[in-house]
Specification:
331 residues; alpha/beta; 8-stranded mixed β-sheet; 4-stranded antiparallel β-sheet; 11 helices; 24% strand; globular; binds iron/sulfur cluster
């Protein structure tokens, strides 16, 4: 992380699901930081622990989840020490989240205007008229045409792209320092996706916010991220500045994601060319969790769990043989 002041710092995050057959671990010893004004992409196939990591930061994990973190601190505030009520106050103000499908967050029974102005008024002592003015201003910022009439619409009347813009407006309504975006463009077509990504970058600068951007799509990462964290089977397997990671991916999993992206050119099937599937949480392989799918796996990989090795400053990889494999040069 290039000399930025730290905004979010996660140390030793462990997350478990309680099941009929006991606890199973979904996230194991995850630690990372996000700097002020930095956009960090969290990458991996579904089931790798990306979304549950972000929900743990927000304090929004499902009931059957147990979060055991050494520390999650946001702007110096320790979130693990906060009561549910204190966390609720923080959400929507200091940190906000947008999801892949805005309809899961927007209430179909209330107008856009009601939902936006209520979000503003929860955290600010202002009247309805001033909240409406701010709402119109926010809709203009997310480049929604005719904002006054959109305020009167219900979510179902809007297109997917417009709904995502409304969600971004709601998320930014109280100038959060951290925005978590979970696959926010996956459901959109490529043109709209590009517009939303450009908008998010623009707003991030304007509001001096930091973004944790969760995606399975390395094409999107290349376009938007400053730094990349790759997760596999609940662990961080590689981390680095976007340019360095794309130029020379060191972990065989990152190399697989990368060559799949290049081969199939950003189609939804980009992850299809890595053999096998992400292991089930209840039956993690011994040793390196990637070994059943790794083309370079050796005997020791089946027995020994690799540590996250420091390669250079800001560059980390979890592989027993990374320095022998060398990584692929991708331009
Ligand atoms: Fe592959 Fe072994 Fe490295 Fe795991 S430790 S990624 S199995 S080479």
């Amino acid at each position: 992380m290039e000399n930025r002041e730290t905004l979010l710092k996660i140390e030793n995050l462990n997350v478990y699901f309680k099941t009929e057959n006991g606890r199973i671990q979904a996230v194991k010893d995850v630690s990372f930081e996000i700097g002020k004004g930095e956009l960090v992409a969290l990458v991996g196939e579904s089931g790798c622990g990306k979304s549950i990591t972000s929900l743990s930061i927000m304090g929004l994990t499902p009931r059957n989840c147990q979060v055991e973190a050494g520390s999650i601190s946001l702007g110096g505030q320790e979130l693990t020490a906060m009561s549910p009520d204190e966390l609720r106050k923080l959400r929507g103000k200091d940190m906000a989240m947008i999801f892949q499908e805005p309809l899961t967050s927007l209430n179909p029974l209330f107008t856009i205007g009601y939902q936006l102005t209520e979000t503003i008024r929860i955290h600010n002592q202002i009247g309805k008229k001033e909240a409406k003015e701010r709402a119109i201003d926010l809709l203009k910022k997310v480049e929604i045409p005719r904002p006054e009439s959109i305020l009167k619409e219900y979510p179902n009347a809007l297109s997917g792209g417009m709904r995502q813009r409304v969600m971004i407006a709601i998320a930014m309504a109280n100038n959060p320092t951290l925005l978590i975006a979970d696959e926010p463009t996956t459901a959109l077509d490529v043109t709209i996706q590009a517009q939303i990504l450009r908008l998010m970058r623009q707003l991030m600068k304007e509001y001096s916010a930091s973004i944790l951007f969760i995606t399975h799509d390395l094409g999107v990462v290349a376009e938007i991220a400053d730094r990349v964290i790759v997760m596999y089977a609940g662990q961080i397997v590689e981390q680095g500045e976007v340019f360095s990671l794309f130029r020379q991916p060191l972990h065989p999993y990152t190399q697989g994601l990368m060559s799949s992206t290049i081969k199939i050119n950003q189609s939804d099937e980009i992850l299809g060319t890595i053999n096998g599937v992400v292991p089930n949480l209840s039956s993690m392989p011994e040793g390196c969790r990637f070994h059943p799918r790794c083309p370079y796996a050796r005997e020791d990989c089946r027995k020994n769990m690799p540590e996250l090795n420091t390669v250079t400053e800001n560059r980390y990889v979890r592989c027993l043989h990374w320095n022998e494999l060398g990584g692929e040069q991708n331009g």
